Amino acid sequence: MSSVRVRFAPSPTGPLHMGGVRTALYNYLFAKKHNGTFLIRIEDTDQTRFVPGAQEYIMDALAWCGIMPTEGPGLGGEFGPYVQSERKAMYKPYAEQLIAADKAYYAFDSAEELDRMRDQAKTMGMPNWQYNSVTRNSMRNSLTLPQSEVNELLASGAPYVIRMKMPRNQDVRFHDIIRGWVVVNTNNLDDKVLFKSDGMPTYHLANIVDDHTMQISHVIRGEEWLPSAPLHILLYEAFGWPCPEFAHLPLLLRPDGNGKLSKRDGDRLGFPVFPTNWTTSEGELYSGYRENGYLPGAFINMLAFLGWNPGTEQEIFSLDELVAAFSLDRVSKAGAKFDPNKTKWFQQTYLRAQDNRVIAAQLRELQELDLSDEALEKVCELMKERATFAQDILTEGAYLLGMPTSFDTETICKKWKPETSAYIHEWQKIIEALPDFSATSIEVAFKTFLTDKELGIGAVLLPYRLVLTGVGAGPGMFEISAFLGKEEVLRRITLGIEQIERILHEA
Ligand code: GLU
């Protein structure tokens, strides 16, 4: 079998939606799995929809995800250039080749003429007029005009497009790896423009010429391109080229399963739909997974499961494990519902698995922190089980970095009994006398204290937590105590009790 070469072919019309990242990911996984090549090609033939910065955004987002292609703009490769506008000159001869083979034709109809036809059809009860194998006969093109007139028009520089001469009543059959056999009758297809009056090919022509000349073996792309596939198959046939294999990926659906996940849904429904932040030219911000604190591994792991599953219970996969497990056979046809909670779960799981040193370094980037590396790593260790994002460690664990700034009044009112302050003061005395201030020795001392006083654990442990941290839940109290150190614990007990009594007095 010839080698696997796949491409991700985004149009630079804006930032890359996470559905686009999933397409890139599946291409990447498929290529790596088969020791093949994953390349990126920028499809910018529609100059009217070009958005400055989009190409850079796409490259940066793929780099953040860790799924960089090996050929592409700025990356090199022997099949370049990889931006279609830079390949402009090569497409026209291919369009002319199709005309010579009677598979395409010149059409000279002006925009006004086309509008007139559409309007006429509408008044006759046909709202969806198409330029096709029937209507082309009453239009101004090289099939209806005398050859001499065609030559004159071309020589005079009259504007024209080149259209596909769609065969009449022919079944186009092709095999899709995900969908099986697909059959479409050409009577349902129009004479698509292949080459535009601005001298640029359309997406369809450029896509086929490039996939052929770049030796693409498999076309893996979104379901929205399935309707274009029959035309693409006919183009391969018209050129006499072998067809690549096709795999059309399922749509990404909104969390409620109601419709396609669109770029507007994200911030509206409270989750990002873009890999990284994007600000429009009007200054509107679409938020990204990166800036929301997601780890790229978690984002990618979540995306891999939107339309694919390994057929086992395993959910956590590194990129290398995904490569090993991935196969297009296990990609489903049905739309994949995006689940924001599951996405958070992936993030949480990845954060927990991360080395404390790595998290500590991330936190220092977020905020200037006045504590040693060792102490910060301990904070990470204590807090990461309760955090979803690295930054939660700083907010949820703020009391590990300094005195608590607020106290949970509700819990205090519920749990603080008239005798509690006295117990905590007694416990403070025991702490004062403790020679060793490790978590284990604090715990032993605490248990002895409870036994001696015949107290239940709840009577003292929660109040002790409240004086030290201000809140009713968190990591183990003996661990926290050892981390804060004896002096700080003693100080906090004194100040904490004062504060709590004030709160109770005011309540
Ligand atoms: N340029 C198309 C897009 O923006 C690519 C479709 C394809 O992969 O053939 O998605």
What does this structure look like?
This protein has 507 residues and is mostly helical. Among the domains are: 5-72 and 207-254, HUPs (Rossmann fold); 90-203, Glutamyl-tRNA Synthetase, domain 3, CATH 3.90.800; 403-506, Arc Repressor Mutant, subunit A, CATH 1.10.10.350. Helix content is 45%, strand content 10%. It contains 21 helices and 13 strands. The strands form 6 sheets. A 3-stranded antiparallel beta sheet has the order 3-4-7. A two-stranded parallel ribbon has the order 1-2. The radius of gyration is 33 Å and the shape is elongated. The model has no long low-confidence stretch (mean pLDDT 96). The structure holds glutamic acid. Residues 9-11, 43, 203, 207, 221, 225 line the site of glutamic acid. The site of glutamic acid has 8 residues, from helix 6.
